[in-house]
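Lay summary. Proteins are chains of building blocks that fold into shapes, and those shapes determine what they do. In this project we predict the shape from the chain. Here is one chain we studied, written as its sequence of building blocks.
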Amino acid sequence: MSVQDESSQRAEEDDRQAEAAVPSTSASDEHILAEAEKIAVALGRMFPGLCEVVLHDLRNPRQAIRAIENNLSGRQVGDSATELGLARIQDPNYPSVIQNYANQFPDGRPAKSTSIGIKNAAGEYIAALCLNLDVSTLSPVTLALSNLVATDPAHRDVPLENLRGRSWRELREVIETAAAERSTTPRSLSRDDKKNLVRRLYADGYFDTRNAAQTIADLLGISRASVYSYTK
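And here is the predicted shape, written in a compact code that computers can read:
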């Protein structure tokens, strides 16, 4: 055998080995479909009774449904592809993800859907993973929650109370701030100012603080009895 023949034979052998090392398109596509099926099953089982998950095999549009988990539409494995599936088969440039669009189950229940196209290495759509959320079951819950958290419009802008605990430091700061606004000290406030301040502190819940009455009396330079009398 000539050197040229040996070289040619070696090249053919290398080509055969290279072809054997690269999986066929159909085998590669099937691997992608198998992995996508795992995702479809897992997603459906995570939202039982709420979200239908369907895997379409777009290589065979007449029997496209390969897996359907948490069946809400009544379709079966082997049913044909939807309009979105056919559109992807015809146009590789069709959007790969169409998210949160309004849809409807056969019995009229409203749904929110998302369709995800899956391409192979050649850039061809071979599958579509579709999620159909039954929003009819959520609407009553949404309404109930909205009613539960709703507040009276008349009281939304200005809160009627503060639910946090009052500290001694806060009490002192309020009294000193009130005196500073009148360019004086707490003890130098007039009797009327002290009375109004005590009533304000009482209304704002500062008397719930431990030893509040005595603290107010010490800061204002009056007796504890006077503090209580000012609250009336």
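What the prediction tells us: Helices lie at 3-21, 25-46, 83-90, 139-149, 168-180, 191-203, 212-220, 224-230.
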